[in-house]
Amino acid sequence: MDVKKSEVLQGTLDLMILKTLEALGPLHGFGIARRIEQVSRDVLQLNEGTVYTSLLRLQQQGWITAEWGTSENNRKAKFYSITKRGQKQLELETKNWERISGVIGRVLRLEAERES
Amino acid sequence: MSTRRASRLRALAAKVRGFLRRPRRDTEFDVEIQEHLQLLAERFVVQGMSREEARAAARRQFGNVTLLQEDRRELRTFLSLEALWRDLRFGVRMLCKNPGFTMVAAVTLALGIGANTALFSVIDGVLLQPLPYPHPEELVAVRHTAPGLNVKDLQSSDSCYFIYREQNRTFQDIGLYRNDSVNITGLAEPERVSALDVTDGVLPILGVRAILGRTFTRADDSPGTAKTVMLSFSFWQRKFGGDRSVIGKTITVEGESRQVIGVLPRDFHFGGRDVAMLLPMQFDRATTFLGDFSYQSVARLKPGVTLAQANADVARMLPIVLKSFPMPVGLSPKTLEDARIGPNLRTLKQEVVGDMAKVLWVLMGGIGLVLLIACANVGNLLLVRAEGRQRELAIRAALGASRGRIAGGLLLESFLLALLGCALGLALAYGALRVLVATAPTALPRTNEIAINGPAVLFTLVLSLFASLLFGCVPAFKYAVAPQLTALRESGRSMSESRHRHRARSALVVSQVALALVLLVSAGLMIRTFRALIHVDPGFVTPSEIQTFRVDIPDTQVKEPERVVRIEEEILHKIEAVPGVSSVSLSMSVPLDGTQTTGPVFEKGRPYSQGALPLHRFRFVAPGFFKTLGTPLVAGRDLTWSDIYNKVPLAIVSERTAREHWHDPASALGKQIRVGPKDDWREIVGVVGDVPKFEGDNIEVIRSAAFFMRASRAGSASLMEDVQKAVWSVDLELPIADMHTLEYYYSKSIARTSFTLAMLGVAGGMALLLGVVGLYGAIAYSVSTRTHEIGIRVALGAESEDVLKMVLRGGFKLAGFGVGIGIVAALVSTRYLANLLYGIKPTDPPTFATVALLLIGVALLASYIPARRAAKVDPMVALRMSS
C-alpha cells in the first residue's frame, strides 16, 4: 500500500461523508455508500467497507454521532449524524480544499500554457 | 497547528479507552457489516444475479472484512503494543524451544559483553570519573620542563614553591608534597611505614578535612615549631583501636616525638599509595637553595583560569625564582640558565592517570573487536537457524505479515538473546573485575575507584542493544527484506545452495577472520615486546633467590656516621651467619625499584665542553654487592670494608662504560673519575660485567640502606624471622621494611607491559577461540547444506578427492580474503600500539606472517573435517535424503 495516496483518499472520504451527512441528515452506512456512489458516478472506485473505518474515525474526533434506529425497510441500523463541531470542521475543511484545489488548478493551468 | 494536535489527542484518548476495554468484541460492528452486505446482495439480486453470485459480488464491492477489522482495531487501540507483546512472547518461546542454541549464543555474547563491561568499568573508574575531590577540574600538578638538560618532565622545588605561593596570580593556593617512609618506635615493635610529607596547603587544596582533630596550619609547617603529625584512618584503627583520645598524644617518628593533631578520613587516597601518616614539610626559607626539583606540587586554580594562563603565570615567575635564592655550593648559575627550565602544568587527573590512558584505550579497542567477533558468531548461528525457519517465515509473509513485522520479530528475538547475554556478561564482568583489580594494582592508578556502577550498567545495556542490532540485522535483512517467494516452493533443503544464500555467511566468516587477525597481531606484538623486555639483561641472576629489605638509621637515632657504617657491617655479618644465606651486601637502592641517581660523570684530565655532560646512572654500593647479585667481575677487584673505613675514594664501572671510554676493561683500571663537580676523584679498581650502569663505592654514609642476600630460602617467612632477629640483635630500635625478593621488583618494573600483555593475550585468546568456533561452524554448516549437491557430484563421477579439494578451496578462499583485509586493518590499527612496544616495530613482519599462517591453518582445519565427511557421503543416501 502506498501510504501517501491512501492518506489523501482517506481525508477526502472523511470530507465527503461529512458533507453527505450535512446535506441529507442522519443516514446509515449503506445509505452513505449509496449516496457517494451516486454522486461520484464511476470516477471513484470505492471499497464500501472503508466507509466504516472513516465513520469510526470521525466518531472518535467527535464530529459525528451514531444512534441505533430502524431503517426505511424496518431493519435495525446505526444512523450517523453530524455534530456542531463536525459542521465547523466541515466548513474549515471545505475552505481548505477549495483553497488548495484552486492553487493546484492555477499551477496546472500555468504548466499547460507553457507547454502549448 | 493546534487543531491538528487536538484531533491527534482525541484519537489518542479514544485509543486509550479502547485499549483499556480491549477484551470486549466489536459485535455492533459485525451486525452493521452483515446488514450492509445483505443490502448490497439484495440489490444485486434485484439486478438479476443468482443468490450465490450476488453474495460474492457484494463481498467484492465491500472489500476485505478482516483488513477492515484490523484497521478498526488499530484506530481503537494500540495495535503495535499488542503486536510487540505477541512478538515478545513468541520470541521467548522460540528461545526456550531451542535451549542449546540459546545457551551457546548467550554465552558467546556474555564473553564479549562481559569483557567489555569489565574494561569499561576500569576506564570509567580510572579515566572518566572526575577525581574524588571538590571541583577537581581546578586541580593541577605543577611540573616543569628543562629542554636544556634534555629533561622533558621535571618536578617542582622548594624555591619555586615559595615564589609561586607568594607571587602567583592564577592559583587559589599551592602545596608541595613528597613520598616518604619513616621509622615508628615506641609503639610495640619498631615499624617502618609509608608517609607523605606535605606543606600546609595540600589538604585544603584537595578539600580534605580531618575526621578528628584538625589539619596542618602554616604554624605547623614553619621551622622551629612543635613537631606534629596526622594519622591515616587505618593506622589510627590499627595502632590506637580508633581511640578518639589519640589527639594530643605523642608518637616517636624517626626518633623524634611528634604530637598527633588529627586523623584523616577513611577514603583519603593521594599520591598513588596508602600512607600511614602525614608530616608537615617545615621548609626553612632562609636555608633554601635553588635547584632541588624533587618535590611534587599540586595547586588549585582560581575559578575560570585556564591551564595556559597558569603556565604563562609560572613562566613569568620562574626568572624571579632564579633571582631570589642562592645556588647550591659548587654549581654555577649558568648551569641552571642552560637548563632553560619552563612550566609544564597539567591537570591533576593527567598526573594521577599518567600514561595508563593510552594502554586502556588500546585494550578497549581490542576487547571491542572481541565483541564484534562474538556478534559475527551469533549472527552466523542466527543465520543457520533462520534458514531452518525459512518456510515458517515465508508462510507468515504469504499470510499477510508485513516485512517490517517479520524483521521486527527477528530483531526482537535477537534483542532478547542480547539481554540474556547482557545479564550473564554483567556477572562475568563482576568476577573479571575482581581478578583484574587484584592482579593489576601496581600498573593501574585509582584501583580503589573501580566498580561496576550506573554508567557501566548503562554502557552494557547500550552495548547489548547495539550488539543485537548488529547480529540481528543479518537474518532480519536476509529473510524479511529479500523476496522469499521461492522459499515456499523449495521443499526444505532440496535445492542446491545458491550463490546468493552463501553470501551473508561468507561475509561473516571473512570479517571474523579479519578481526581475529587484528587482535592476534596486537597480542603477538605484545608478546614479542615482553620477550624483548625480559631479554634486557638486568645484571643479576636468579632474582627469585635474592631477598632484599631496607633498614633506615635516622641521624636522630644514631648520630655518628662512623657508627652507622659499623651497625650496617654488623648486620651484614649477622645475616651472613643465618643458615641458607650464601652472601649478603647493601646498597642505597634496590635495582629496578625506580629510584636511581643520574648525574654527570667526569674523567680526570679529559676536557668537557659545557652542555655536553656525559650522563650516567650511579649507585653507592657496599662490598659483596656484585657477588650477591651474581654479576661477574671482569677486571680488577671488589671493594673491601677497609676501603670504606679508610674512606678511600674508589669506583667500580660497568664493562660497557669501560669499553665506551677506555676501549677495554683492563685499561679502565687506575683511571680517576668523579660524579658531579664536587665529588672526590675516585680511582677505578674494578670492572663488572653486564650492569648497564656506573657504580660508585660508598663514601657517604648510607642511612637508608637496601640489604641484599642470596639465599635459597628467599621469600620465606622463616628467613625473614631469622633476618629480623639478626638485625635486632644489633639494634632493637631498627625496623625492617620492604621485604621483597628481587624478582618482585623485577616483575614490578615490567608490570605495565605484563598487564597489557595479559589483557591483550586474553582478548587474543578469546578472539582465536571464537574465531575458530565460528569458522568451523560456518564451513561445516555450509558443507552440510551442500550434501545433496555433493551427492550429485559424486554420482556424476567426482572423486572424493575432488570433493575434498573443492571444500578446502572454498575455506581457503574465505580465510585468504579475511587475512588480506585483516592485514590492512592491522597495519592501520597497530600504529596505536607503537609506544607500548619495545624493541619491535608495529609492522613486524614475522608477527604478521605467523598470525596469518595460523589463521589460514585454522581455517583449513575447520574446512578439512566437514570436507572429509562430505567426501565420504554415499551418493544414494545424499540424494534420497532430500527427496
What's a quick, concise take on this entry?
The complex is a heterodimer of chains A (116) and B (883). Chain A has 116 residues and is of the alpha+beta class.
Task: Please write out the topology.
The complex is a heterodimer of chains A (116) and B (883).
Chain A: H1 3-24, H2 29-40, H3 49-61, E1 64-70, E2 76-82, H4 84-115
Antiparallel strand pairs in A: 1-2
Helix pairs in contact in A: 1-3, 1-4
Chain B: H1 2-20, H2 27-46, H3 51-62, H4 65-76, H5 79-97, H6 99-128, E1 139-141, E2 144-146, E3 151-154, H7 158-167, E4 171-185, E5 191-198, H8 202-206, E6 212-213, E7 228-231, H9 233-240, E8 250-253, E9 256-263, E10 277-280, E11 296-301, H10 307-324, H11 333-339, E12 342-343, E13 346-347, H12 348-353, H13 356-388, H14 390-398, H15 403-439, H16 454-481, H17 485-489, H18 499-534, E14 546-552, H19 561-576, E15 581-587, E16 597-603, E17 615-618, E18 620-621, H20 625-629, E19 633-636, H21 641-645, E20 650-654, H22 655-662, H23 665-668, E21 672-675, E22 682-688, E23 695-697, E24 704-711, H24 717-730, E25 736-741, H25 742-749, H26 751-785, H27 787-795, H28 800-829, H29 845-871, H30 875-881
Parallel strand pairs in B: 5-10, 7-9, 18-23, 20-22
Antiparallel strand pairs in B: 1-11, 1-13, 2-3, 2-12, 4-5, 4-8, 4-11, 6-9, 7-10, 8-9, 14-24, 14-25, 15-24, 16-17, 16-21, 19-22, 20-23, 21-22
Helix pairs in contact in B: 2-3, 5-15, 6-13, 6-15, 6-16, 7-10, 13-16, 13-18, 13-26, 15-16, 18-26, 18-28, 18-29, 19-24, 26-29, 27-30, 28-29
How would you portray this structure in words?
The complex is a heterodimer of chains A (116) and B (883). With 116 residues, chain A is of the alpha+beta class. Chain A has helices at residues 3-24, 29-40, 49-61, 84-115, and strands spanning 64-70, 76-82. The longest helix of chain A has 32 residues, at 84-115. Chain A is elongated and about 60 Å long. Chain A starts with a helix and ends with a helix. Chain B is elongated, with a radius of gyration of 39 Å. The two termini of chain B are 64 Å apart. Chain B is built from 30 helices and 25 strands. Residues 490-497, 609-613 and 692-700 of chain B have low confidence and may be disordered. The A-B interface holds A 28-30, 33, 47-50, 52-53, 56-57, 60-62, 75-78, 92 and B 3, 7, 10-11, 14, 28-29, 31-33, 35-36, 39-40, 61-65, 67-68, 71-72, 75-76.
